[in-house]
Design a protein that fits this description.
339 residues; mainly alpha; Dna Ligase, domain 1; 3 domains; two-stranded antiparallel sheet; 13 helices; 6 strands; elongated
Length: 339
């Protein structure tokens, strides 16, 4: 009889203990704050599970660091470095599994076509991705440029315009590497892609000018052909975009509303009105349209082009200076007529 009573008491105690464990588990695994605000939590590379648990608890994201640590050990979770959007309204187990699965939070940023290196750096900084100065420093790192086969003094022209998803803990090196890798991945299938690094660099320089000149994609190859034809006869490229680059990027002045004759006389290797040939380096980051046009210019004998339909962004192409001037006269008459 006494043994039977003892067994009943032991069973009751085990039952109570089990219920208490379940209640305790649910409590400790429950939300630390059901109305808590989501935030980004960073797990540093090599950060031990105990440190992750302690940091989560100290910031009020979870209720118990010991519970979180033992949950990781019990379920043999491997917590991955990165940035994660978590909330005190989430269960501790949910947060830990999110980190173990590596479901990171990313910053989405779109780099428009035609930006310079400096403008790209500012764009990334404004998006909160990386410090502008650090980005520019890395983009001029000689070892990095050699690794990617870029003969220029910076990565200007190779920072491929695209939409990127960068982790919250991204540094300047990883961001530049991502953009350069994207450039070579996206251009790999382009027809006429030079295999020689210097030849490719020259095509990128030309593409960077075409990028700043074309408005209608279908006209890009013809614009490229104008510059190719000028290069072939030793004529200056006479691109206003290169003058704007000098003023804004080299001289650090605001973008001009219009170029003056004095601007066309600025002493700079980038002044394509004063000197024939390509400028020393790219003046923007070209997209695939401009890159494709530079590598496959149209077969033409055009030497000039003029924007004659600003609303449509289309140009008139001419073979001679006389035709070019005549196109200008027709544009003036059209404007005077109010069309």
């Amino acid at each position: 009889m006494k043994l039977k009573i003892a067994l009943i008491c032991l069973s009751a105690f085990a039952f109570v203990l089990c219920i208490s464990a379940i209640v305790g588990y649910r409590y400790l695994d429950g939300a630390a704050n059901s109305s808590g605000t989501p935030e980004v939590f960073n797990v540093a590379r090599g950060m031990p599970a105990a440190a992750v648990a302690e940091t989560l608890a100290s910031r009020g994201i979870i209720k118990s660091a010991p519970f979180a640590y033992y949950y990781v050990r019990l379920h043999r979770l491997s917590l991955k470095a990165g940035s994660y959007r978590v909330s005190p309204a989430m269960a501790t187990s949910g947060i830990l599994r999110l980190i173990a699965e590596g479901k990171q939070e990313y910053r989405r940023v779109t780099i428009p076509e035609g930006l310079t290196l400096a403008k790209t750096a500012r764009h990334l900084a404004e998006a909160g991705v990386v410090d502008a100065a650090s980005f520019e420093t890395v983009a001029a790192d000689r070892a990095l440029l050699e690794r990617f086969g870029i003969p220029g003094s910076t990565a200007e022209g190779y920072l491929f315009p695209d939409t990127y998803f960068f982790p919250y803990d991204a540094d300047a090196l990883s961001v530049v590497e991502t953009m350069l890798t994207n450039f070579f991945d996206k251009t790999a299938s382009l027809t006429g892609l030079p295999q020689d690094a210097k030849e490719l660099y020259d095509r990128v320089i030309l593409a960077s000018i075409v990028e700043r000149e074309y408005r209608v994609a279908a006209e890009a190859p013809r614009i490229a052909s104008v510059f190719e034809n000028r290069l072939a006869i030793g004529m200056g490229l006479q691109s206003c975009a290169t003058i704007e680059y000098i003023i804004t990027e080299i001289q650090g002045k605001p973008h001009p509303t219009r170029l003056t004759n004095a601007d066309l006389e600025i002493s700079s290797d980038y002044n394509t009105y004063k000197w024939a040939g390509l400028p020393p380096g790219p003046i923007s980051s070209p997209g695939l349209v401009a890159l494709g046009a530079a590598m496959n210019p149209a077969d033409s004998d055009y030497l000039y082009f003029r924007l004659t339909d600003p609303s449509a962004g289309s140009h008139t192409f001419s073979r001679s200076l006389e035709e070019h001037v005549e196109a200008g006269h027709l544009l003036t008459l059209k404007k005077a007529a109010g069309n």
